[in-house]
Amino acid sequence: MTVIPTWQLRARFAAALSSMYGREVPAYATLVDVCEDINTAVVAGRDDAERLGDIGRVTAERHGAIRVGTPRELREVGTIFAGFGMHPVGFYDLRDAARSAVPVVSTAFRPIDADELARNPFRVFTSMLAVDDRRFFSEDLQSRLETFLGRRTLFGEELLTLAERAIAERGLPSAEADTFVHLATSAFELSSEPTDRAWYAELEQVSAVAADIGGVTRTHINHLTPRVLDIDELYTRMQRRGLKMIDQIQGPPRWTGPDVLLRQTSFRALAEPRKFRESNGEVVDGTLRVRFGEVESRGIALTPRGRERYDALMAETDAAARNGSSWQDAGRSVWDASDFPTTETGLEEEALAYFTYRVGDVHSPSGVADRDPAALVRSGTLVATPIVYEDFLPRSAAGIFQSNLSGNGTKDSTNTGADYTIDWFAGALGREVHTPEALYRAQQDASLRESLTQLGIEQGVNSR
After folding, report:
1. Burial class for 304, CB neighbours closer than 10 Å (0-12, 13-18, 19+)
2. Domain residue ranges in the chain
3. Above pLDDT 70, what percent of the chain?
4. Whether the Cβ atoms of residue 229 and residue 428 lie closer than 8 Å to each other
5. Which has the closest alpha carbon to 247: 409, 395, 408, 400?
6. Do 432 and 340 touch, CB atoms closer than 8 A?
7. Strand pairing class (262-267; 171-173)
8. Whole-angstrom Cα distance, residue 291 to residue 366?
9. What share of the chain has pLDDT > 90, as a percent?
10. Is Lipid metabolism found in the keyword set (predicted)?
11. Cβ pair 108, 123 in contact under 8 A
12. 286 vs 275: CA distance, rounded Å
């Protein structure tokens, strides 16, 4: 009996979702084509183009985004993703990360082992509606919303059973694998069931995101994001093709130093045909703008010390942009004038970013006694390779959401917000929610220990 291992299930799932989404949103296919053209050109023209992932991985790489309404739905979708070897990483509270009303808390499901990421790094950014946050929902609206959400079923029993079997057996037999991927993909297709116009409109007054989650009977892929090696070039090319892009690229600016963390942009949500049910029961044609085409460019993962420097530079850029210059121009000026290292070597020496280590071709272990990674790298004893940032930024995620909303919604800041934490999220999921920094640090420390052992240096690792 042929068993399809977890990573192949994940690769099939990502490919099936990409094919489905391309049929639903044709502009997504254009986005993928442009990404592949740019990536091919960058790899041909730059020796370091594959420094943060080879072209095979980058070409296949996607992240999706979905939205659910309740802890039950969150727990069920966590089971499905676990069947594909995807685990919750990070806690993102978007409620205060944007000017507009985005009443959700989120995590990202992804592989957590380096070899699994290398095989297929599919991620799904998953948001849950904060229905008990009084800044957005009155007690009456919360009650009616919970009743609506409690009546719907997003994921069938067969799908959940197959997911649990895939978790237990770390894969599935061929026939069951085909069914699992098909059912999982179908669960995220756009529903053709008519939407109650009055109910949707009431939630849309609070937030377009709230309406997209709680105003419909099914969930769906909100966007599917390819990875590009030159996001600035992509932004320009997509505009030339007539697609309206959001106002700016989210994340750090393009500057003279290495790419760090994550840069994202998207074409604006397109008007898609939907069926609506009017108050008199009549079903009519209409449109909604909720799904958009996002693209990302990934950089080096920063340590907490590096993130502090990053946050300070972003705040300085915001202040500079308020003086009239574009955000990108202000950012480049601020970053280039800063003391933030302009080389990977500088990032490594100051412990601002995460790296893996391997023994160099020429080394002299007896000449290095302090086990300091930077000293070992300077001597040529170790070679440092940057770790790619696999996760997300709350400000950027909220910025993408906000840029694609038809309105700002409503938020009563005089009320107290509901208390959501990473521990609450883990309890709702019934699974550990990993912190990105802990995963990067563990990967870095494991590579350093292995290298020191090869060199005959048995002392402990200086964690950075």
Report:
1. exposed
2. 3-301+390-433
3. 94
4. no
5. 400
6. no
7. unpaired
8. 59
9. 66
10. no
11. yes
12. 6
Contacts of 83 (CB under 8 A, 6+ apart): 6, 9, 162, 163, 164, 165, 166, 167, 180, 184
CATH of domain 3-301+390-433: 3.10.180.80
Query: Can you tell me the distance from the alpha carbon of 401 to that of 292, in angstroms, rounded to the nearest whole number?
Result: 9
- 3-class secondary structure per residue, the chain: CCEEEHHHHHHHHHHHHHHHHHHHCHHHHHHHHHHHHHHHHHHHHCCCCCCCCCHHHHHHCEEEEEEECCHHHHHHHHHHHHHCCCEEEEEEECCCCCCCCCCEEEEEEECCCHHHHHHCCCEEEEEEECCCCCCCCCHHHHHHHHHHHHHCCCCCHHHHHHHHHHHHHCEEEHHHHHHHHHHHHHHCCCCCCCEEHHHHHHHHHHCHHHHHHHCCCCCCCCEEEEECCCHHHHHHHHHHCCCCECCCCECCCCCCCCCECEEEEEECCCCEEEEEECCCCCEEEEEECCCCEEEEEECECECHHHHHHHHHHHHHHHHHHCCCCCHHHHHHHHHHHCCCCCCHHHHHHCCCECEEEEECCCCCHHHCCCCCHHHHHHCCCEEEEECECCCCCHHHHHHHHHHCCCCCCCCCCCCCCCCCCHHHHHHHHCCCCECHHHHHHHHHHHHHHHHHHHHCCCCCCCCC
Q: By the 8 A CB rule, do 278 and 284 touch?
A: yes
89 neighbors 434 (Cβ within 8 angstroms): yes
Burial of 233 (0-12, 13-18, 19+ CB in 10 A): middle
Residue 296 pairs in a beta bridge with: 227, 264
Res. 463: pLDDT tops 80: no
pLDDT digit string (tens) for 238-248?
888 888 888 88
Length of the chain: 464
Asked if 290 and 269 count as a contact pair (C-beta separation under 8 A), the reply is: yes
Residue type, 48: D
How does pLDDT run across 61-105, given as a tens digit for each residue? 999 999 999 999 999 999 999 999 999 999 999 988 766 678 999
Contact status, residue 454 vs residue 359, Cβ threshold 8 Å: yes
pLDDT 10s digits, 129-174 = 999 999 999 999 999 999 999 999 999 999 999 999 999 999 999 9
Structure pTM?
0.92
Count of CB atoms situated within 10 Å of the CB of 463:
10
